[in-house]
Specification:
The structure holds 2 protein chains of 2 kinds. By secondary structure, chain A is an all-alpha fold. In chain A, 75% of the residues lie in helices and 1% in strands. Chain A is built from 12 helices and 2 strands. The N terminus and C terminus of chain A are likely disordered. Chain B is mostly helical. Chain B has 13 helices and no strands. In chain B, helix 7 crosses helix 8. Chain B is flat and about 75 Å long. Classes of the chains: A mainly alpha, B mainly alpha. At the A-B interface, helix 1, helix 2, helix 3, helix 4 and helix 5 of A face helix 3, helix 5, helix 6, helix 7 and helix 8 of B.
């Protein structure tokens, strides 16, 4: 961009307009620079204001909160619930998302694939509150009627399905399934993008050596797309960590840490806990909720920077 | 993808290449058998259990096609067919909840999709009746304010990144911070706006403008990213031609670069609006809920559509059906808005493209 960075400053012929155009340039450039710096300021402000508002929590006497927990005791089950729910949803969504991305990029007819891509983008924009009420009204009854009793009877020896099975379906598993449906479009969209970028020559070389379609995908497409899939998964994880309304509507929360995913006693997530308690809170309780929000901010920050680092290492499969 | 497509069914004169391949006939037979087996799984209950039917059929087809193909074609082709079946059925499996979601929202949302629903508020409504007029007003005001703030903010940042600061350290820092901002959970953005306004106006403040600030934090990075990408797509020759005519840089950007990229930029903005118009959590903590219309975003609580949907569902009142019907109808309105915005973005991007690039 060497040429565009130095606009011609004009010859003597342009002299009369030179001052005004320079002024215009300075103003316009200044506004742009200001907007850019405002981004940095905004982000700093987010961290700063949350910190200022969270601070009174740590100074306050423990007895001022109901439950009289210290902050660590308060946030531990929430943090566990947040990570547990996000992990479960990723576990469910990732294999399906990769398969759907492969279907769209390599199996579906081309015309169908295009409209499917549009459809997937649209799904990513369906409001989470709609997913939430669908989860509690449709999915929860189905799962609690036919899946949870079966899991309790047949796999009850595993701590995850120890039961007692919830009859309302307001369980961690229902929440994780809904979260999985919500993050699927994100992971699918990114995976599809990288699968489509696989060099055609790699694919055709593989086929020319007699590989079947699946062998070609295993040899050429998947190695090439691996880092893209991983960073897509991390973005989905970040979304699941911060997802609020679907969990708030579905989960029946309790103040415990458990890996049991089919009972009525579930650890809540940070975001959902804020949404449920915030409207009725006042005083130090609000500060404590904001402090948990700060914890959530740092967790998602870590996950997202990890995702970016993986994405930045590039398409490592292409080199090898 | 001619190379990777399925070979045609065996010709009448079966050559040695196609001799031991599975034709279309056996494939179809396996598929019909699998669907029939799926139907058997609910047959003794009398009425179709769609979810079980589909899942059993899919599993049966995967097993069936693998076994048949392994016998006829050998293990490598069998694995190939199995994976094709798994990938396709994964798509069907994923489509199931999504179809169910759209179907449920349409079916239950149409119960209350009447004129009263769009012209009434919730003031004084306990049981049946009531509407979303106040929620529509609130959503329009809050989202409109957020758009007014985030479009100039995002656009100028993108101009800085693409036109002025390209390659500088500051630009790189801004770019990575935009990425961080993209990842901020929506509830955290809401808490930030709440904290900001609490420090300025005292505890417990709720107002539309606070919600707009929260949405701005969520919207701006999306706009920056899409606008920057679009500005970079503008060919450098256009800029250079403009400079060569003695046009100053800012005028080049306003008159040449922006009009060329405008289609993509507007599409990005519309998609960003579609993303935030359904945000519930940040508005729940900053704007709250009101029963009537509030036109003033600087004073007092307002109702927005997503928050309305949430409260109508979890606190439906008596009888609960009336509130739940309102919740579903509001959800339907939300989905329709998002779809309209998506379609509008598509149409705009093709209409506004400069003539040379169309």
């Amino acid at each position: 961009m060497t040429i565009t960075d130095n606009p011609p400053s004009g010859d003597t012929a342009a002299a009369p307009t030179e001052t005004t155009s320079k002024l215009g340039d300075r103003i316009f450039g200044g506004i742009s620079l200001g907007a850019g710096i405002l981004i940095l300021v905004t982000l700093a402000a987010v961290a700063l204001f949350l910190f200022v508002e969270a601070w009174p929590t740590f100074g306050a006497d423990v007895s001022e909160f109901d439950g009289s927990d210290t902050f660590l005791q308060y946030v531990a089950p929430l943090l566990f619930g947040t990570i547990w729910a996000a992990f479960l949803s990723l576990l469910l969504a990732l294999p399906l998302a990769v398969a759907v991305a492969l279907f769209v990029s390599h199996y579906a007819p081309k015309r169908l694939a295009q409209s499917l891509g549009y459809f997937i983008d649209l799904l990513a924009a369906i409001p989470s509150v709609v997913f939430g009420i669908w989860g509690i009204a449709v999915l929860a009854p189905i799962l609690s009627r036919s899946v949870y009793p079966w899991l309790e009877d047949n796999l009850g020896f595993l701590p995850f399905f120890a039961g007692p099975a919830s009859t309302s379906g307001r369980t961690m598993m229902t929440a994780a399934v809904v979260l999985a449906v919500m993050i699927l479009p994100i992971i699918t969209a990114i995976s599809r993008e990288v699968f489509l970028q696989t060099p055609r020559l790699h694919e055709e070389a593989s086929l020319a050596l007699g590989a079947t379609k699946w062998e070609m995908i295993k040899q050429a497409v998947l190695p090439y797309g691996r880092s893209g899939v991983i960073s897509g998964a991390m973005l989905g994880l970040g979304r699941a960590l911060g997802e609020t309304m679907a969990v708030a509507i579905i989960l029946s929360p309790a103040d415990i840490i458990t890996v049991n995913v089919i009972s009525n006693q579930n650890p809540n997530t940070i975001a959902s806990n804020i949404a449920l308690k915030f409207p009725e809170s006042s005083g130090v309780e609000v500060n404590r909720l904001i402090a948990t929000g700060l914890v959530l901010f740092f967790v998602t920050f870590l996950v997202n920077s990890l995702a970016r680092r993986i994405a930045d290492t590039g398409f490592s499969g292409a080199d090898g | 993808m001619t190379l990777t497509e399925e070979r045609p069914a065996p010709a009448p004169t079966a050559s040695s290449i196609t001799a031991d391949q599975l034709g279309r006939g056996p494939q179809l037979a396996v598929m019909i058998g699998a669907v029939a087996l799926g139907a058997l799984s609910w047959a003794n209950e009398g009425e179709p259990n769609w979810a079980r039917w589909i899942i059993v059929s899919i599993l049966a087809y995967c097993v069936g096609i693998y076994v048949v193909s392994r016998v006829v074609e050998g293990p490598r082709r069998a694995l190939d067919r199995l994976m094709a079946a798994i990938v396709t059925s994964a798509f069907l499996l994923v489509a199931m909840p999504l179809v169910s979601l759209v179907w449920t929202v349409i079916e239950r949302g149409t119960n209350r999709f009447d004129t009263e629903f769009f012209t009434e508020t919730m003031r004084g409504v306990v049981g049946e009746g009531g509407g979303i007029y106040h929620a529509i007003v609130g959503t329009l005001i809050v989202t409109g304010l957020a758009t007014l703030m985030s479009v100039p903010f995002g656009l100028f940042t993108a101009i800085y990144l693409a036109e002025y600061g390209h390659g500088t350290k500051l630009a790189k820092a801004i770019q990575s911070m935009v990425d961080v901002m993209t990842g901020i959970p929506s509830i955290v953005a809401g808490l930030f706006a709440y904290a900001l306004f609490e420090l300025m106006f005292g505890p417990g403040t709720r107002s539309g403008i606070a919600g707009a600030v929260a949405l701005t934090v969520l919207m701006t990075p999306v706009i920056v990213r899409s606008a920057e990408e679009m500005l970079r797509l503008v060919p450098n020759e256009l800029r250079e031609a403009s400079y060569a005519l003695g046009v100053p840089k800012w005028k080049t950007i306003v008159k040449v670069v922006l009009p060329t990229a405008i289609a993509g930029i507007i599409t990005g903005v519309v998609l960003a609006i579609a993303r935030v118009i359904g945000e519930t959590a940040p508005l729940l903590v900053t704007v709250g809920l009101a029963q009537g219309v509030n036109w003033n975003p600087f004073d007092g609580r307002m109702t927005t559509l997503p928050v309305y949907t949430y409260y109508q569902y979890v606190q439906p009142g008596i009888p609960p059906e009336a509130g739940q019907d309102r919740a579903w109808a509001a959800a339907l309105v939300l989905i329709i808005i998002v779809m309209v915005l998506f379609t509008a973005a598509r149409i705009l991007s093709s209409v506004l493209k400069p003539k040379g690039l169309r």
